[in-house]
Structures are given as structure tokens and as C-alpha cells.
């Protein structure tokens, strides 16, 4: 049977766990901010883990970053997709530098406006 001290400790632990889950849930719902020079396209990958954006085979930098809908980093080899909507950034040589896989809500939004 729980004594008064054990009961308080159990309730306190439950409250702390609940608050931690609420903070984590709020952090996951944060809106992602995309750079001004971001472009939008449809991404597919080949069997050899090559990038095809809007039907064209594209080169990427060795430091390519791919972010999932949950903003987790993915490796190119783990991405096997067909025609998903993405935002991407190119470097000065036209190589793909960053890719964000968009949620349905993000895909409906307009691209950031350039000044």
C-alpha cells in the first residue's frame, strides 16, 4: 500500500511526465521556416539513389541534407519516393544542397516572397 510520501512522489512524477509530453507536442507542431531562395518541385528517386526533381536528374552536394515531414534528417539511400512535393535549395553551381519533404499543409502554402 502507498504511504502519503510515496503517493505524492507518484503524483509529482506523473505531472512532470505529462508536462514533458505537452512541451514535446508543442515543439513538434512548430511551423518550419524556409529560406527566401527556396524552390518547390516534385521529387523521385532512382534505384541508384539519384535525385530526380520535376523529371530531371539533378546533382547534389556531398553535404546534402534531407528533412522529413517531421523535420528529422534522412539519408539519400533511405529515401525511396515517387513524386512527393518538396522545397529545395541549390548552391551557386546548381547542385541540390537541402531538401524538405513537405506536409500536405505546407504544400498548400505559397513559397516565401523574395524582396
- Helix/strand order, N-terminal first: HEEEEEEEH
What structural class is derived from the secondary structure elements?
Answer: alpha+beta
Integer average pLDDT: 86
Range of strand content = 25-35%
Reported for the largest beta sheet, the result is: 7 strands, mixed
Q: What gyration radius follows from the Cα positions, in whole Å? A: 21 Å
Low-confidence stretches: none
Distance between the termini: 67 Å
Q: How are the strands of the biggest sheet laid out side by side?
A: 3-2-1-6-7-4-5
Structure description:
There is one protein chain. The chain has 115 residues and is α+β, with helices and mostly antiparallel strands. It is built from two helices and seven strands, in the order αβββββββα. A seven-stranded mixed sheet has the order 3-2-1-6-7-4-5, with no helix packed on it.
Task: Summarize the entry for a quick read.
This protein has a seven-stranded mixed β-sheet, with no helix packed on it. The chain has two helices and seven strands, in the order H-E-E-E-E-E-E-E-H.
Main traits of this protein?
2 helices, 31% strand, 115 residues, alpha+beta
Write the layout of secondary structure elements.
Blueprint: H1 4-28, E1 39-45, E2 51-53, E3 56-58, E4 60-67, E5 73-74, E6 84-90, E7 96-101, H2 104-108
Parallel strand pairs: 4-7
Antiparallel strand pairs: 1-2, 1-6, 2-3, 4-5, 6-7
Amino acid at each position: 500500500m502507498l504511504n502519503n510520501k510515496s503517493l505524492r512522489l507518484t503524483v509529482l512524477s506523473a505531472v512532470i511526465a505529462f508536462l514533458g509530453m505537452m512541451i514535446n507536442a508543442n515543439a513538434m507542431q512548430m511551423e518550419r521556416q524556409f529560406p527566401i531562395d527556396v524552390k518547390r518541385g516534385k521529387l523521385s528517386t532512382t534505384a541508384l539513389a539519384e535525385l530526380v526533381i520535376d523529371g530531371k536528374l539533378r546533382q547534389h552536394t556531398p553535404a546534402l541534407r534531407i528533412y522529413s515531414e517531421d523535420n528529422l534528417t534522412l539519408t539519400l539511400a533511405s529515401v525511396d519516393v515517387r513524386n512527393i512535393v518538396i522545397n529545395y535549395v541549390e548552391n551557386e553551381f546548381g547542385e541540390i544542397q537541402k531538401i524538405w519533404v513537405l506536409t500536405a499543409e505546407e504544400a498548400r502554402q505559397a513559397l516565401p516572397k523574395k524582396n
